[in-house]
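Help!! Second protein's tokens look totally different from the first
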Amino acid sequence: MKFMGYIFKFLGFENEEVRSKPKKVKKAKASFKFKNGQMTNRAEHIDGIPVYYPENFVQAREHASFLRDKKAFIISVESCSREDADKIFEYFHGVAYGLRAKMITLEEDKLYLLLPEGMEVEE
């Protein structure tokens, strides 16, 4: 940073090159688990982003720490009851708001992508 950059920073002006660009996540490709030589229906990762399949609200709450650690993840509520799925959606919506993260619906009422602050999805 040059001398004028320090002066601008001291006065509260930020130089455009100082601002960091958000990370981008590329289009999704799914990888699947193999169990006993057979492929299961559940993707373990989608384009390198881990997918979690909680069976109830208590299990889902354990994954909120990933957002605090600035890690993106996908949560699928397909194996939950409708009541737990609604609780999980509301909980992560609140967590995302509190941590300035993004919650993107990938599949209506089933699959949600949670991105920490500073990450974006590449179209």
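Here's the second one for comparison:
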Amino acid sequence: MKRIKSTMAVLLCCALLLAGCGTAAKPGAETPPATEATQAPTAAQEPVTILIAAAASLQYSFKEELIPMFVEKYPHITVEGTYDSSGKLLTQINEGLAADVFMSASMKEMNALKDENKVETDTIAELLENRIVLIVPADSTTDIAAFQDIGKADAIALGDPESVPVGRYAKEALTSLGVYETIQPKVSQGTNVTEVLNWVAEGSADVGIVYATDAATTDKVKVVAEAPAGSLASKVIYPVGVLSRSEEQEAARLFVDFLKSPEALAVFSSYGFTPNL
């Protein structure tokens, strides 16, 4: 009886050994590739937030389309924006505004930062061109039809030429036409282009000078004229660049590169800007 039990034990051990050998990998056999379930998960990119300081005339294109497009492409990056006259933004940056990217409505402000080494020069791009136009309320029956006619209006809205690029452009154009000084008693100065636009749209000003892109954002105004050829010494250029103090240089550079992409330039074009690259 003991011999039978002993023989059965031996047979059981052999069976277990054979079963183990059947599942072992053969010498020299390739290890099967890891499946999605067995691969180690990739660490998620650290979330970052960048602040864009941009001219007021860029607010619609940025908020409505460009920022959502960028965030969809780079979901780990949150983009916030602050919009005002380029001169005000320049002052805020000089006073410590923690912005990562600056996009102004003229070269003057960008050059001021460049001269003080506050912007990464290799990132500066003269990205867009705009135009200045003379607008009146949509229901206006005025016979004003040219920049030279602006003096016929009783109330004129212009940007402050000291801090608002569109005001500086307006002053240059109207000075070249010989009418700027004569209209001063009728002029109200806006703190940014949006304020000038709203004054005309609401009817509190008879005429105003804004960018063509701003005039296109509302049906409450109509364009009666563009600045005459030769009335401006240079184009209305919008430069963009990464600020040197940015603590999120990689994300900021990605955003600037995105703005230079064909899909972003197409969006700018749809808002009335002309790509200048």
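Reply: Different proteins will give different token patterns, so don't panic. The CA atoms of residues 55 and 104 lie 5 Å apart.
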